[in-house]
Every structure is written in C-alpha cells, then in structure tokens.
Fold this sequence. Notes:
The protein is an alpha/beta fold. Helices cover about 40% and strands about 10% of the residues.
Amino acid sequence: TIQHAGWYTRDAAGNFKLPVPDWTDVIGLNYGSAELRRYMIDAMKFWITECDIDGFRCDVAEMVPLDFWVAARAELEQARPVFMLAEGESPALEERAFDATYGWDLFKVMRGIAGGSKTVADLRTYLDDDAARHPTDAYRMYFTSNHDENSWNGTAYEMFGDGVRAFAVLALTLKGIPMVYSGQEAGLKKRLAFFDKDSIAWTGDDFANLYKVLLNLKQTNRALWNGDSAGPAERVKTSNDAAVFAFVRERGEDRVVVV
C-alpha cells in the first residue's frame, strides 16, 4: 500500500514521474496537494526548532512553485529568523522568499573568458544586466566551483587553468557573497564522486593562504560587505579596457581596488 499517493506526480498511465528524466533516485512531488505542502513546511520547521539550524540551501528552487516558498518562509520566520539560499537565478525568489541566489550566469561568463570564447566586455554586460534585474539588497552568490560542476564538468583548475586564482579573487570581491566549495581551500585537483564518500586530501596548498586573506578581507573591510551594507563596484578606466577589468569599492573609510 502506498501512503499519501496524491503527494507525488504521475504520468497519464498513473506511474510515478521523475522530476527530470535522469533523476532516477527521486520522484516528483505534487505541490498541488495542500497536504504535501503542509508536511513539507512542518518538516522544515522541525529542523529550525528542534535541530537549531540557521536556514536552508534549496536545490533547484525554481522547480518548486514560488508561492510554496513564500508560505514556507513566512511560517519559518514565526519560529525565528532564518537564512534561505536558492539554487536559482530568478529575482522573484529574492523578492519574496530567499536571502541569496546562485550566480550561475557569472560562472558561465568567467568560464567563457578563461576558455577564450568571451571577453571583458561580456563581464561588463553581465554585471550591468544583473544589477538591473536584482534588488540592491540581493545577496548574489558567486563561485568558481560547486558540487555539480566539480563532479560532472571538472575541477576549478580544469575550468580556469592558469586563471584559477584570478577568478577566485573576482568571485570574492564583486558585490555578492562567496562560496568556497569542498576542498578548494586545499587546492582540490580532483573531481569528487557525486553519490559516494570521496575523501579530500587536506594538504598545505597555498590556495589556503589566498582564501584566508580574501575571506578575512571580506569580513573586516566594510566595502566588501553584503547587500545594501556593501560598497558598489565602480568601474575604473584602464589603459587597455578591452583586456583589463578593474573596479573600486568604497564604504565609509574602507576601500578596495581590484584589477
């Protein structure tokens, strides 16, 4: 006997459906069911109230109806303040339910620059478009690697080659919040197994020192803080704007110049 059969999506023949064809380890949830929504929100509240977690990172958040996230956030906030990160780009997620969203498109632009298919001009265009689409208090999360990219497409070294450190600096100094993926601070040079335990070699790679400096700067320099508390990134004209990207961020007496 299948309990709560109405909580899952089905095809015309009545068979359970996968959310995506190759996601064979899960079944699609039916958010048209009020009972399913109630159960999901209660499960989230359990982790907040009983396990004292600070919030959630929500996988493929745009595949779940926005009104569910809005309702969930409102109920969670009644328990206590939470931080919500959406693995998605939609500005609507930030406006209604989430504190932070993934900067997937910046990652694609950086990869293109590293691979020679894009230029500094594409970076400028992306930043202008992103600023126009998202509210000023949005927390955009930038990265040079994550669990999907590392396992399926390659390590940060494979993605960015000799530019791996330069792009790490860019991701940690633009207006947004940084993500350091598992082992990057140890100079991770292998693709981690996605579904199995795969230990990281915690070596003394000099990447640890780079991230230590960058993350300390992020915390102590107000120009690099987040949302409306941050200093905006103002472009700096260079002698070769076709090949060089430079900007300055200021807040109060703090200032950071990045080239």
